[in-house]
């Protein structure tokens, strides 16, 4: 569980006091009383400003990497819809609005489809990644606090046109305002970028931010706000992102870093003084009420008492290293494109365009994609390469090359040449009528020729130099060709077969370098003995006694070890060339997920979600077959391929490598 996942508890502790009395105690028993009192006060609306703690989706409408409109964000919302809220469910402000009897969700202002009624009861102007320091929003490319005020002014004008000036002003006077920001200023700007640290020592930076806060609150009052709650900042030293960035051994020795927490505490103390001053200065003239809302102590309590409160884990976010991923912005990656080769793990639909039995462009495949569209991806949703492309700021879906309608622009930012059923062994693709790696490479060359004629040789070369190449292949060679089809097993023992694959893999990587690839990521193969189809075909009692078949997984592991060594050797031989070629393991991460499936929120690992889950794959997994009610509770989607959730978790496990090397 992480900071964001703790909102539900935080909510109970924090916000009841806001609109009643500053001295009101935090007891939950008082809820009803507070509600009554609030009703008496007749609060009309809730307006929200600040950062990701209160952004309900404005960033969906701006061009930034700080987005959360994709899974697994929103997994606990109705229909698991990711809305742009940076958590698994509702935000604190949603709970506040519910309990004030206003509405259940505070929508983002930038959603242009909101009705006047929805606008009237309140919206959020907040933007994840924002802060009181203007540099913060500039770095993260999100909506800064001044711009949020501008939007509020625009909002007032819109409402005035509907209900007239006098009513609009009363409406604003009776509304509650919540401002929550400051964390990003410290975490991302002061402690991460060098600029501010050169200008200010920590005391002066706190004061600088407080000046920003004071100005912001004063502007709200000038615009008519009368009930304002300003939220302090959390114990920053305990935020997963901070621990990861600042611990010497961030993986094994994780603990709160007191220094950052002290800074936050000092800041909160000063903030209270500042707000009291603002309130005093405005009380007589405007009757404005400005209060400080503490989350510091409440959150610290949750962290120290996490087991009592029912949390299992606090040192890592509940979404892997997602927090860290969020700190990356587009500008860090100069990647121009992503090109993908391999098998069904990365084929987004090339097999739709060829004659093969291995297809998945029909329901229930793709059931969790937008509009439930089956695209030819062998899963319920996105593939790992889709997540990678999003992360690199390129595109949200890597399309299949064989779709002839793709524009040159779409092709340029990346495309997949992969084909379900393909492999390193030239005998593997023919078993499935899949596109062999050599042919995939020819398609790439064809594409390169098109690009050269469109933009010249020099630009094309430079475009490819900054592109990432991904290869995910090998599972079919072992799981299908070697262990199921008869030929290869008669010719080779498993060691020799691994060596054969390795030799072909090496040749393929070399061909990629020859056509201009400079950044290559190679994915190993999974513990194939745990794939449901392998378990079914090789267990004595496949229905009742299902367990991973180690004998098969061991061969996969041996192959991975050789592949990794081979890739290291290639990299060492290319040391000063600027070429990066890296191996990424999926074996251990997937095994970890299988062994700890409950911890990751899964209910089932022994069978796929489609049908019985024992054998269904491709045409056997079709619209007439029932599926499990909730694919996110399953590790496998069909009898071979993981669900989108597992692909996402695997993507998270690649992040470090991607950010370091590619
Ligand atoms: C709200 O107003 C009603 C009647 O106007 C009153 O009976 C009730 O005590 C008030 N509630 C609070 C908490 O002030
Ligand atoms: C920061 O600098 C100010 C002067 O600008 C000084 O008064 C203060 O003591 C310094 N604080 C720290 C923590 O060094
Ligand atoms: C843990 O919770 C108890 C009450 O539930 C509280 O008294 C105590 O202060 C909390 N511990 C810490 C370290 O905050
Ligand atoms: C092929 O690409 C075009 C252009 O992006 C797209 O509109 C179309 O839906 C794609 N076709 C399929 C079958 O996905
Ligand atoms: C496979 O055969 C080779 C000789 O071709 C031998 O060196 C190796 O030990 C054998 N491996 C296994 C696992 O039997």
UniProtKB/TrEMBL annotation:
Keywords: Signal. Residues 1-24 form the signal peptide. This is GDSL esterase/lipase. GO terms for molecular function: hydrolase activity, acting on ester bonds. Transmembrane segments: none annotated. Belongs to the 'GDSL' lipolytic enzyme family. The keyword rRNA processing does not apply.
